Amino acid sequence: MLRLISACVIATLALGAALAQPGSSRISGTGTSYWVNRDPHTGQNQSALMLRSDGGASTLVMKCLPDGEMMMYVTTPVPALPQENAFTLRKRIGALYRAEVQVGSAVLRSAVQPIGYDPVQTGALRLDDAVAAKMYSALYGGTRVAVRLIAVSKAALNAQTVAGTYDFAPQGFQEALEEIDYCDMG
User: Fold this and answer.
1) What is the CATH T-level fold of the domain 2-184, as seen in this structure?
2) Which of 50, 41, 10, 39 is closest to 179 using CA atoms?
3) Cis ω on the peptide bond leading into residue 66 (within 30° of 0)?
4) Under a CB-based contact definition with an 8 Å cutoff, are residues 174 and 53 in contact?
5) Model confidence over 9-47: pLDDT tens digits?
6) What are 68-121's pLDDT values in tens digits?
7) What is the pLDDT of residue 91?
8) Which pTM was predicted?
9) Contact residues for 133 (Cβ-Cβ < 8 A; gap 6+)
10) Residue 81's closest CA among 111, 124, 112, 116?
C-alpha cells in the first residue's frame, strides 16, 4: 500500500512538472493567462495569451506569429474536427462549422480553419484574421466578446457539444498583452 501511495505521489509531481510551462503565468483575479516564448535563434515572438470562457468550457487563444502578426482561435470542450489530412479538411471545414462573433452590438461572421497540419489540432477552430483584429480591439478596449460556433451539417464531429456560445471577459487582456510584448505588433 505504501508503494502505491509513493508511486501516486511521484506520478503527481512528475505530471505537475510537465504541465508547468516555463514562462507561463496567470493574471490574478481573472481567467486570463499568458505564455512568454521567443525563438532562441531568430528572436521571433512565439508567445500566447489565453482567455478562459465564462464557465471554463472554452479558451480564446491569441498566438503570436512571425513579423508582428497574430492569430486567434477558440478551443472546444471535445474534438470538433476529425483526424484527417489537413489539406482535405481545409477544403471541407466550411461545410462543418462557421462562427459568429459578437463584439459589442455588432455580430461578425467568421470562417473557421483548422490549426496545424499533420496532425491537425482537432479541438481548436481558427477565426479569420479580419474578425480576430476586431476582437483584439474590442478586448483591448474593455469590451466582452462572444463566439458562437455553429455546426453547419450533421457531419460535424460532436456537433451537439461543440456548438454553442462562449463568452470571454476582457479582464487581464491588456496586462497579458504587455507581458507578451503585444506580439511585436507596430
Assistant:
1) Immunoglobulin-like (2.60.40)
2) 50
3) no
4) no
5) 333 333 233 334 556 899 999 999 999 999 999 999 999
6) 999 999 999 999 888 877 778 888 887 789 999 999 999 999 999 988 877 888
7) 81
8) 0.83
9) none
10) 124
In this predicted structure, what is the pLDDT of residue 116? 83
Nearest residue to 65 via CA among 21, 126, 109:
126
Q: Any idea what the Cα angle at residue 105 is, between residues 135 and 172, rounded to 5°? A: 40
Sheet containing strand 59-65, strands side by side? 24-26, 32-35, 48-52, 59-65, 69-75, 121-127, 112-115
Could you give the 3-state DSSP secondary structure of residue 10? helix
**Residue 28 in grid coordinates:** 490574478
Write down the residue that cell numbers 507596430 correspond to: 186
User: What are the φ/ψ torsions at residue 77 (nearest 5 degrees)?
Assistant: -65, -25
Distance CA 34, CA 135 (A): 17
What cell numbers appear for 95 in the block? 461545410
